[in-house]
Automatic annotation (TrEMBL):
InterPro entries to which the protein is assigned, alphabetical: Acid_Pase_AS (IPR033379), His_Pase_clade-2 (IPR000560), His_PPase_superfam (IPR029033), Histidine_acid_phosphatase (IPR050645)
Record SUPFAM superfamilies: Phosphoglycerate mutase-like
The name this protein goes by in its record: Acid phosphatase
UniProt similarity note: Belongs to the histidine acid phosphatase family.
Length: 454
């Protein structure tokens, strides 16, 4: 069956999704500059930049693994386009926080946390280059690993052991909830509606399942998305994928992902630890108990990192986060003079000195536009106290997360958590501050959270 003839069997009219301006309630164009009268701290969370595919379509004999290796070094690797995207995001951060951040890189002011993937680490370095490069520099200096700012401590835990920056960490309870979700009547109904298209994709991709499971649409979407982005580099879409088909696959991808974070237990176990860490840090800052000196705490993560945190905040974009999407959570503290409201306070409050949070979203890959998002059921202003109260169901410290994940399947196995004590002692001997853990002699992980050692 050709790509042209498939148009006749589609059950849905192709809906053109506004990729560059997804509609969200409470969304408005943000000011270019942050309100420095009240700004105290910035958390940033982003998805890595453009990368090579992480999967290969079995039937594709043109875009081979050797071809991806020769051009970009293999699968799942940050491309030059991805580095440029994060360089530009760094420029956006410089423009917004120019008088808040130092003009030169000072390690104590900036903490960068990453998942243990090359693409997220390199995205962080490209981002930093953009943040501190002169105006005359038009793009990132390559190779990135040789041009990282001096003194940078890029923090990460080994793959499979990091519940903070969304990772493929083992959590049986969350996996069970996902199995139930994708076996639900609602999800099965969508699979049935799209059965002919999924059958076509199963036959053409040759993954071995016909129809191709909607739950696994990523396996088709991911390689095709990368091929389409790199046609200029000699990669070619299969003859069964025309633009109509590509848009339909994207629709299925966003449809499947719209189910991902609608279940509270999934939000709690996949994204609760990150939300809790951010919330606790903001509480420590306003109480004066925070020991860190940084002004920015950045997380270099994945699409699920952003989608999960937004879901906890009851925000569900139509389009799953694309490359170089970013969230900025600003902590603001109004001035304390009675009866005076600073420019940062968006409405009168019973206590005009109460700290509040503002949320911003960069929802495109190439653009530099920020949107301010109103957090549902929280303001404005969304005070820190109100945010904690309304999202208390998703507050979970790592020891509790471990217990809930394991449930009745508790095992006595050696993991990063059980071996953390020896790592901590080795860091102490190097004179690192509390909350610092070492992965190797050349890599430090500044986490600022004692709970990571069990």
């Amino acid at each position: 069956m050709s790509a042209a003839s498939i148009d006749g069997i589609l059950l849905f009219v192709v809906v053109v999704v506004l990729l560059h301006t997804p509609a969200l309630l409470g969304q408005k164009l943000a000011n270019d500059k942050a309100d420095l009268d009240t700004l105290k701290f910035v958390h940033a969370l982003w998805r890595h930049g453009d990368r090579t595919p992480s999967k290969m379509i079995p039937s594709d004999q043109t875009n081979t693994l050797d071809k991806w290796k020769a051009k970009f070094g293999g699968l799942g690797q940050l491309t030059d386009d991805g580095a440029r995207q994060h360089f530009n995001l760094g420029r956006l951060l410089r423009h917004r926080y120019d008088d808040f951040f130092s003009c030169t890189f000072t390690p104590e002011q900036f903490v960068y946390r990453s998942s243990d993937y090359n693409r997220t680490k390199m995205s962080a370095i490209a981002n930093l280059q953009g943040l501190f490069s002169p105006d005359s520099q038009k793009g990132p200096k390559m190779p990135l690993e040789e041009n990282a700012p001096k003194g940078l401590e890029l923090c990460f835990l080994p793959q499979g052991h990091d519940p903070i920056v969304f990772d493929d960490v083992e959590c049986p309870a969350a996996s069970k909830a996902e199995d139930e979700l994708f076996s639900s009547d609602g999800f099965k109904k969508e699979e049935k509606k799209n059965a002919k298209l999924l059958t076509f994709l199963g036959q053409k991709s040759q993954y071995g399942q016909v129809p191709h499971p909607l739950r696994r649409i990523y396996y088709v979407h991911d390689p095709l998305n990368s091929i389409n982005a790199h046609k200029k580099d000699g990669f070619v879409l299969p003859d069964w994928v025309n633009e109509t088909m590509r848009q339909e696959i994207m629709r299925l991808y966003n449809l499947k992902n719209s189910f991902n974070y609608k279940v509270d237990v999934i939000k709690r176990l996949w994204s609760g630890p990150l939300f809790t860490e951010i919330l606790d840090r903001m509480d420590s800052i306003v109480s004066g108990n925070y020991k860190g000196k940084e002004k920015l705490h950045a997380y270099s993560g994945h699409d699920g990192s952003i989608a999960g945190l937004l879901a906890i905040l009851d925000i569900y974009p139509e389009v799953f986060p694309t490359y170089a999407n970013a969230l900025l959570l600003e902590l603001h503290q109004p001035q304390t003079r009675k009866g005076a409201y600073s420019r940062g306070s968006r409405s009168a409050s019973s206590d005009n000195s109460e700290p509040f949070v503002r949320l911003y979203h960069k929802n495109t890959t190439e653009g530099v536009t920020l949107f301010e998002l109103q957090i549902p059921n929280c303001g404005p202003p969304c005070t820190l106290k109100k945010l904690r109260e309304t999202r208390k169901a998703f507050i979970i410290e790592v020891p509790q997360w471990k217990e809930e994940c394991e449930g009745s399947k508790k095992k006595d196995k050696q993991t990063a958590w059980s071996s953390c004590g020896s790592l901590f002692s080795s860091v102490k001997s190097l004179g690192c501050a509390d909350g610092c853990y070492v992965k190797s002699e050349s890599c430090f992980m500044f986490l600022g959270r004692r709970y990571l050692c069990c």
